[in-house]
Amino acid sequence: MDEPLLKVRGLSKNFGAVQALTDVNLDVPAGEVTSLSGDNGAGKSVLIKCISGIYEPDQGHISWEGRPVRIRNAHDSASLGIETVYQDLALADNLDIVQNMFLGRERLRHGMLDEDDMERAAAETLAGLRVTTVRSIRQPVGSLSGGQRQSVAVAKAVMWNSKLVILDEPTAALGVSQTAMVLDLVRRLRDQGLAVLMISHNLNDVFAVANRIAVLYLGKMVAEDNVTAFDRQSVVEYMTTGGLGVKAKAPNSQAGGVEHGAD
Amino acid sequence: MAPTDPGSGLAPSSSGVEHPDEAPVDLTAAPGAGAALVPPEIVAQTMREYVHGQFLRIRGGESGMLPVILGLVIMVIVFQSISPHHIFLSAGNIVNLFQQSAVFMVLAMAETFALLLGEIDLSIGYVGPVGAVIAVQLVQPTTTNWPWWAAITVALLACALIGAVQGTLISRLRIPSFIVSLAGLLIFNGVLLIVLAFGPFSGYPTLTGPQPNLRALYNLMWGHISPAEGWITLAVIVGVLGLSLSLRDTRRRRSGLVAPPVGLTVAKIVLMAVVGIAVVAVCNVNRAAVGTLEGVPWAIFIVLGVLGAWTFLLQRMRFGRYMYAIGGNPEAARRAGIKVTAIRTWAFVLCSFTAGIAGLLYASYLGGMSNNVNGGQLVLYAVAAAVIGGTSLFGGKGKAVHGVLGGLVIGGIYNGMYLLGLAVQWEFIVTGGVLLGAVTIDAVSRRAGGAGSV
Fold first, then answer.
1. What distance separates the 2 farthest-apart alpha carbons in chain B?
2. What pLDDT was estimated at residue A245?
3. Which contiguous run of DSSP H or E holds residue A246?
4. pLDDT under 50 in chain A at which residues?
5. 8 A C-beta contact, residue A9 and residue A60
6. What span, in angstroms and rounded, lies between the C-alpha atoms of B315 and B400?
7. CB contact under 8 A, A132 and B25
8. Which among B36, B78, B80 has a CA at the least distance from the CA of B61?
9. Tens of pLDDT along B35-67?
10. What CATH code is assigned to A6-92+162-258?
11. B452 touches B62 (CB < 8 A)
């Protein structure tokens, strides 16, 4: 296997006496969807916040395109090409789709907002993701449905030549058809060659789009492998017990993941 | 992936899973997409579609400026029919109405900066007069005798400084703006009284006198341009705005973007011209009982200047975009890398600065300053004017022009009640009722789900 886009090795993070992450390894290759699963409190959010620069890890290192990097803040991660879509989406309801997609990175012409240029670029990005609009991308985001808002947030994340898009529970609040819409979008990101790291504990979603699955249990990475090495039962086991039952039944699938034999 | 996915809950969407290219995400086709909330001018291709879209929007609770325009029409009809000798729409009274409203209009535009952030600034009712009294004191020929421009500059800078201090307390120390500015209302009432007492004027420095510096301040409200200059200025304003509107449409069409229907743009320009012609024509009528008094008052141009500047700042500049973003979702703004604290502080600076301009107009209207300033009432009228005009108290929604229209309503009530000879208590009650009505519309449209467009 080629050098993955993002490689996390031996990452640990504690908050006072609480050990949130212990010696975590993770590979996120380009052109694939990596699903990060785990029960509540397993450390999924802490891990993505370490990758996106919200937290600085206590130990361990991260390498990006084969080079070691330090990600100290959100600006560092953005300049590497890492964009994160959090569960709350961070959209301003009173602004329209274009304004939201360019928020904080507006294009100017003669010191004024270049609305036409931004509108064209936003339309191109949306069209590239096959997020089409019958009416207008000038409607306020507050008038969109949950899945549409998620799509806008994702489109906003991929606008900036990003290479890795981290999605935090993208389907948690959505109904069936909206979920399918967002999962389609995730596949399109992958098909465009982006790396996707998706937090989800909905196994339907995980098996519908993921190429790789990584499972955290109490701050430790207990399984990481291609999706074919898992079935629903084993993922549930890893999430709930850290893989005690699976180890007995299928030691190979777990060993292959944790030891990163492919490196 | 399929073998590991027995009895998937995603079955209904499996066709989309297999052929992602056939299932484009449509941002507008889904139910609940709130088509009624989409501003019609951005989607309508024809005037008919525009009118229909506007109708849907209003029915959906997104009424925009319609209530204030309806309110203005009703106010004019009522006061015209019941005012003695139908004097309300006489040329003299209309000009008088503009002049009375000018202070409310500018003060409402000031308040808009706080309201857009979801904050409030109660102090401007006295911050404005403090700026005014500084200017009035500085131009007094018997004491400091500063040139008028220097006095105005210092007065406005003092207001901006006050805004910077209050804004810093609010945005950096996270003290609620309500409390900071309520304290400011008291503090600057005191400061006003102190500055008033300077000099040999027994607390009543006036602007009456032949000295050019006094005249300059006095003329902010009472000066006017000649009728011919009025027509020329109107032609220039309508020409420039009309040209820029149609140029923008042409540019958008040429680059393949959706532009508003031609009919709408033409209608806008015609409406602008008609309103302008009406205003200039009315102002050019001789309104003096004896002698000649005609022409458009400077105050109207000062209001238009503030309106133009702040509209440009809010709609065309990055700063304005960030104001709306912070008002809509401060957390999203922060994550987008916007310096939220700095923008908030600047908003209060601009609020107090604009209040200073309103204060200068106020001093000019009164022909001087005295301790007879009711700042508490002024600021409530300013908030009322902004909200009546369509600015939301909840942040993220509002424009400078809302303050101008709302200010006209407040000024109209003030003027009409005076013409009717009603005592001041009725003015309070009616204005309060109108404010309550406007806030109700705001709250109801918000609950109806309309986050609203800027």
1. 97
2. 65
3. helix A244-249
4. 134, 250-263
5. yes
6. 10
7. yes
8. B36
9. 445 566 555 667 777 777 777 666 655 666 777
10. 3.40.50.300
11. yes
Diameter of chain A measured on Cα atoms: 67
Provide the pLDDT for residue B44. Answer: 64
Separation of first and last alpha carbons in chain A = 7
SS3 letters across chain B: CHHHCCCCCCHHHHHHHHCHHHCCEECCCCCCCCHHHCCHHHCCCCHHHHHHHHHHHHHCCCCCCHHHHHHHHHHHHHHHHHCHHHCCCCHHHHHHHHHHHHHHHHHHHHHHHHHHCCCCCCCHHHHHHHHHHHHHHHCCCCCCCCCHHHHHHHHHHHHHHHHHHHHHHHHCCCCCHHHHHHHHHHHHHHHHHHHHCCCCCCCCCECCCCCHHHHHHHHHHHCECCHHHHHHHHHHHHHHHHHHHHHHHHHHHHCCCCCCCHHHHHHHHHHHHHHHHHHHHHHHCCCCCCCCCCCCEHHHHHHHHHHHHHHHHHHHCHHHHHHHHHHHCHHHHHHCCCCHHHHHHHHHHHHHHHHHHHHHHHHHHHCECCCCCCHHHHHHHHHHHHHHHCCCCCCCCCCHHHHHHHHHHHHHHHHHHHHCCCCHHHHHHHHHHHHHHHHHHHHHHHHCCCCCCC
Token pair for B320 = 């304005």
Instruction: Say if the Cβ atoms of B8 and A111 lie within 8 Å.
Output: no
Backbone angles phi, psi at A20, to 5 degrees: -80, -40
Show the tokens assigned to B356: 């200073």
The neighbouring-strand residues paired with B441 are: none
Distance, CA of B340 to CA of B160 (rounded, Å): 19
Quick check: A32 contacting B, CB < 8 Å? Answer: no
- Degrees, nearest 5: CA angle A139-A144-A147: 135
CA dist B398 and B112 (Å) reads 7
Gap between the Cα atoms of B440 and B63, Å rounded: 12
Contacts of B5 in chain A (CB under 8 A): 204, 207-208, 232
Say yes or no for a CB contact (<8 Å) between A208 and B324.
no
Contact B4 A111 (CB under 8 A): no
**Do B337 and A179 count as a contact with CB atoms less than 8 A apart?**
no
**Residue A73 in contact with partner chain B when CB distance is under 8 A:** no
Is the Cβ–Cβ distance between B287 and B91 less than 8 Å?
yes
Q: Write down the pLDDT at residue B58.
A: 65
- pLDDT tens digits, B240-278: 999 999 998 888 888 878 788 888 889 989 999 999 999
Region class of A131: left (phi > 0), else alpha (psi between -120 and 50), else beta? beta
Give CA–CA dist B450/B38, Å, rounded: 10
Residue B228, class by beta-carbon neighbours within 10 Å (0-12 exposed, 13-18 middle, 19+ buried)?
exposed
HEC sequence for A101-132: HCCCCCCEECCEECHHHHHHHHHHHHHHCCEE
A121 part of contact set with chain B, CB < 8 Å: no
Q: For the whole model, what pTM was predicted?
A: 0.85
Integer angstrom CA distances of residue B252 from A120, B157, B255, B426 = 10, 40, 5, 51
Contact B12 A91 (CB under 8 A): no
Interface of B with A in 297-336 (CB under 8 A): 316-318, 321, 324-325, 327-329, 331-333, 335-336
B-chain residues near A225 (CB < 8 A): none
Would you say the ipTM is above 0.85?
no
Of A94, A105, A119, the CB nearest to B397: A94
For A119, B93, B253, B309, B454, the CA distances from B45, given in Å and listed in that order, are 18, 42, 12, 30, 21
The tally of CA atoms less than 13 A away on the side-chain side of residue B200 is 4
What type of residue is B50?
A: Y
Strands lying side by side in the sheet with A59-64: A18-28, A6-15, A59-64, A67-69
